[in-house]
Amino acid sequence: MRDLLAVIVGALVGTGLRFGLDTLIPHGDDEFPVSTLLINIVGSFALGFVVARVWPTASAWLKAGLGPGLIGTFTTFSAVAVSIVALSHEDLLWLAVIYLVLSVALGFLAAFAGIRLGARPGRDVEKVTE
Amino acid sequence: MSVQAVLALFAAGVVGAVARWLISRLFAGRRFPVAVLVVNIAGSAIGGAVLGFAMSYQISHSVRLVLLTGLCGGLTTFSTFSVDTVQLVLDGRTRTAVISALSNLALGIGVAWLAFAIVWAFAPPIYLLL
């Protein structure tokens, strides 16, 4: 029950942050989604970092609130897929490809950097899904 | 955007996030990150359909925001996808990492496109009918 509450609170903050960034840096269906790209890079770094740094000593509710709650809700996969469909539909296939490549490459790089910077020497990093 | 629409957006974000959290618990302990794949495919499919309805002017901008930014944004996640993939590579399970990453991208974008195409075909924009 405490885990569920933590997920709900984290989700409210994550939704608010993502919606706020989308409003601050708006993009049409025929424009490059800068806000989503930033969100997914920052979120991937943050999750990598907390999984490596905070997870080994964190309680279950804190993990639920930070992982599936805050950062999981902050980042989005559907917005990437939808923007790629929208850009392709607007005959901007090259922009869709650039967006996809940047999202994956920078997202993975950010996750790696987060894990490396968060890891304490001599300690194994826990799995994010456990 | 009305206050009611913003409240609905936050509520939809929480519903999506809680659904994602429950699904991740359902698939906990699997060697392949199934849960992330399931939510990302489901959210991308809903997202593609919503884009189709929005681009053909069947739904308002507020409804689009509630469903896309709220529900689909909360249900899907990019951070767990990227951190999971990087951890699989760091664990020496490169094959699983590649299969997971490619299935998320191919199936996520594929179902988003399919859902969009179906809605677009059966709900043509008003200006095409005139």
Written overview of the protein:
The complex is a heterodimer of chains A (130) and B (130). The longest helix of chain A has 26 residues, at 93-118. In chain A, helix 1 runs parallel beside helix 3 and helix 4 (78-89) packs antiparallel against helix 5. The model of chain A has no long low-confidence stretch (mean pLDDT 94). Chain A is an all-alpha fold and 130 residues long. The radius of gyration of chain A is 16 Å and the shape is globular. Chain A has helices spanning 2-24, 34-53, 60-74, 78-89, 93-118. With 130 residues, chain B is mainly alpha-helical. Chain B has six helices and no strands. Chain B is globular and about 50 Å long. Chain B starts with a helix and ends with a helix. The model of chain B has no long low-confidence stretch (mean pLDDT 94). At the A-B interface, helix 1, helix 2, helix 3, helix 4 and helix 5 of A face helix 1, helix 2, helix 3, helix 4 and helix 5 of B.
